[in-house]
Amino acid sequence: MSRINLLDLLPSEMEDLAVETGASRYRGRQLATWIFRKGVVDLDAMSDLPKDFRTTLAARAEIRPPEVERVTPSLDGSRKLVFRLEDGGRVSAVLMPDEDRLTLCLSTQVGCGFGCAFCLTGTMGLDRNLNVGEIVGQLLAANALSPDQRVTHMVFMGMGEPLANYAALTKAIRIFTDARLGFGYSPRRITVSTVGLVPAIERLGREDLKVNLAISLHAATDAIRGRLMPINRSFDLATLMAALKRYPLAPRQSIFFEYVLLDEVNDTQDDARELARLLRGVRAKVNLIPFNDWETSTFRRPPLPRILAFQKVLMNAGVTTTVRWSKGEDIGAACGQLRELIPA
Ligand code: SAH
Ligand code: SF4
User: Fold this and answer.
1) pLDDT grade, residue 332 (50/70/90)?
2) What is d(CA 109, CA 125) in angstroms, rounded to the nearest whole number?
3) Is 112 in the pocket of ligand 2 (CB under 6 A)?
């Protein structure tokens, strides 16, 4: 029988495991503190754990973070971490510094099965879901890279569709936000981005997680969205927007809407007006993402004046809108550029 990976466990499950091995719950709490608070992933380095507990524990469990295969720095200060998984699959996470913030963009799946037309990850198809330890391991590895600055914010905007890996995603978030023995991140510093899986959005709204929600919208009409995003054929805009209007938000919380700007596809001022109309009645913040190019893609980024004109229409309609220039474009780490096949 293969040993339990401790990175797959909640702190409370580590307490249970300690009891199962004949120790006290306190030993489980120490274990969680070493891993999540101190970032220590070597049982032998946990100096205040009794030797016999470590020995019985090691017979049943181990700590297996995903292997960091390489770290690629970008000219803009961001860094891409490529992980090699146990079955040989690869995913990446991207660290993006911005003033006093350090944001980590996390992956949740190897590949993605949703096939959005403008997304490189989408061309891979889905290989498999990441498990909890592989998600948590991305944060541990990122924090280990820069001991002087810990990750302050997390966005689930890397490879894969987070809500299609619901159980692992929500468990990882519980570990990240557990204030008692987990990493202790505020849920408001965590954002989950989704292609628009309505039943999973509704389920997320019923949890007590309180993380931010970002919706990959990318078009304001079913005709355009349906061409870009196959998911729109299962959950159209009316269904999606109705679910979002019911989504529980904290007093000053908004829903983020991502809109990739594609030259002559969804970037006219009429498109912007349609978008403003669609967002009426929702507390919304729009992130415009100028398209990031990849080989063989048929899309192009619109010229800057068109991007700014689109933003202006939304701003004039009272919608908070920022243009998000992706980080790490030069190292294939920008939004929609993640595909790790063969190491360079
Ligand atoms: N699967 C989730 C999480 C990925 S987030 C989702 O789609 O929301 C990555 C964001 O980058 C999404 O909004 C995605 O639509 C966008 N994106 C994908 N390809 C892109 C590209 N080539 N240029 C700019 N943004 C892109
Ligand atoms: Fe998957 Fe998101 Fe890319 Fe669509 S945009 S293919 S959902 S990763």
Assistant:
1) confident
2) 10
3) yes
Q: So what's the pLDDT on residue 314?
A: 98
First to last CA, the chain: 35
Tell me 293's DSSP state: P
| Residue to probe by mutation, ligand 1, list 114, 231, 288, 335, most atoms within 8 Å of CB | 335
pLDDT of 1-30, one tens digit each?
A: 689 999 999 999 999 999 999 999 999 999
Q: Give the pair of three-digit tokens for residue 37.
A: 């608070």
CA–CA gap between residue 29 and residue 32 (Å, rounded):
5
Q: If DSSP codes are grouped into helix, strand and coil, which group holds residue 14?
A: helix
Ligand nearest the Cα atom of residue 193: 1
CA distance 300 to 293: 7
Question: What string of DSSP letters covers 128-147?
Answer: EEPPHHHHHHHHHHHHHH-T
Question: How large is the average pLDDT for residues 260-270?
Answer: 98
- Opening angle at CA 338, ends 149 and 183, nearest 5: 35
pTM over 0.90: yes
List CB contacts of 46: < 8 A, sequence separation 6 or more: 30, 31, 34, 40, 54
pLDDT of residue 111: 95
- What gap in Å lies between CA 291 and CA 293, rounded to an integer? 6
Q: Report which residue type is found at 159.
A: M
Would the pLDDT of 130 be above 80?
yes
How far does CA 283 lie from the centroid of its chain? 21
